[in-house]
């Protein structure tokens, strides 16, 4: 009997059709069997899509794959004997892969698998067993304790905050010239830790500190996500870090045989910035280590040839002209020169790198976050005598608003507070790995530990108000939580401008912190002022403080005129009249009129009496 193509299954190899097959299930089983016997590469993945009636074979790069233990007749092929051999290093993980005990599945082949989460869940229908149930999370989420108790949205935030945390990013940081780097002064390993955190040796590169945290309001200062921290803790080094920034420059060579030179620019150079700018440079034009610098100070003195060749010959063609190309410290920055290094590029041109360091002490506006996506900005730094305190005299390092927990469903944060407190009292690390076997009894165990040391079993304590000395009416939950200091610091973002540079084209203030720019007063801000009816404030923002221009408008033709300083008279480009009116407009509007005229469209301004 001839079978029609409709009953055959298409076979796709890396997304391309390579043929059809009569019995797709047998083909898929055959490929899997060959892979498990080591006859095919372990990189090959195969799956049968029943809805589309197609077989997909994937061997290409970039697939995310995950290991699973293979089940045979309802029993895992990874036996206790093999686990013992792995522990004693008689065999390694590759042995398991080559002998069909463990295999890697990609996203498509996972669709054909029924995976048991633990050995007690295995039934006849299951095909695979999870190596470790916590591996359903990625590495970043697995470094957080109790992630299974947090809302999904917080996992995405936690992943970002982990990347933004300041810590010990490299042990040779003082030998490196990274463009920007942050090093935390006293990094600690967390009291509540996870298996993944220890496996990848993260304690060697910690990126946070254990804070004593109380869930309490503080006179309205920690509304929403704001946090209140203890000044005494900050003075003792809590969250203190060093910020390193590198400035680099090179003596470039140019086609005409000319080149840049490192030296203190002479006053005759184009763009000379004044003697005070170069006062900290040494004779060779490079600043020396341990010099204090602030914005506008020269770091690497350099002169370069003119941009255009015809400028090169000065008066009488004798002297060579040069322009100042010095590297100066950017706006709003200050610090100490930490290190200077001279090196060469592959083209044998000299390179100089200058690293600036500046101390960053936590201040109002700096950002902290726990490992559960609970971010907060410092709103107040309180003297220790005004902070709440316990009967034992313990003053929390940080006050977190209790309202920030229930709506966000970050119960992992509460568990860590309790677990951290129990661990601190016992003087031992607490395991917070996702889905761990101790999970169901966790709260009971922490409670017993706390009670055995004379605390309330759920971590609540009577706190006394530092302002009045009176106890709070309700008990307050407190404990130890691992917090990260993030690199969003107010000292890097602060931007101030009163009067300053304007753009050449529109005469409006420049944009951006680097150009001493202003903040944009946009359409929505304008709408707010219109809604309030604050018309004079609107005029001030969008005209007087921006690009106000007084122009001459011809009464006859409505075009813009100008003042001829030689003839001392007003001139209209179209008519002979001298009858003009001064009008205040935005300079950007004048630019618009000029651009319309450049399209050969005549514009005229009509004037009311």
Gap from first CA to last CA: 98 Å
Q: Kindly provide the name of the CATH class of the largest domain.
A: Mainly Beta
Note the total helix count.
14
CATH superfamily of the largest domain: DNA-directed RNA polymerase, subunit 2, domain 6
Runs in which pLDDT lies below 50 for 5 or more consecutive residues are none
Q: How would you classify the helix and strand content by structural class?
A: alpha+beta
Radius of gyration: 35 Å
Largest sheet: 6 strands, mixed, barrel
Q: How many beta strands in the DSSP annotation? A: 34
- The gross shape turns out to be extended
Bin the helical content. 10-25%
Describe the model.
The chain has 609 residues and is α+β, with helices and mostly antiparallel strands. The chain folds into 5 domains: 127 residues, Alpha-Beta Complex (Hypothetical Protein Ta0175, Chain: A, domain 2), CATH 3.90.1070.20; 202 residues, Dna-directed Rna Polymerase Ii 140kd Polypeptide, Chain: B, Domain 6 (Beta Barrel); 119 residues, OB fold (Dihydrolipoamide Acetyltransferase, E2P) (Beta Barrel); 50 residues, RNA polymerase alpha subunit dimerisation domain (DCoH-like), CATH 3.90.1800; 50 residues, DCoH-like. The strands form 9 sheets. The chain has a 6-stranded mixed barrel. The mean pLDDT is 91.
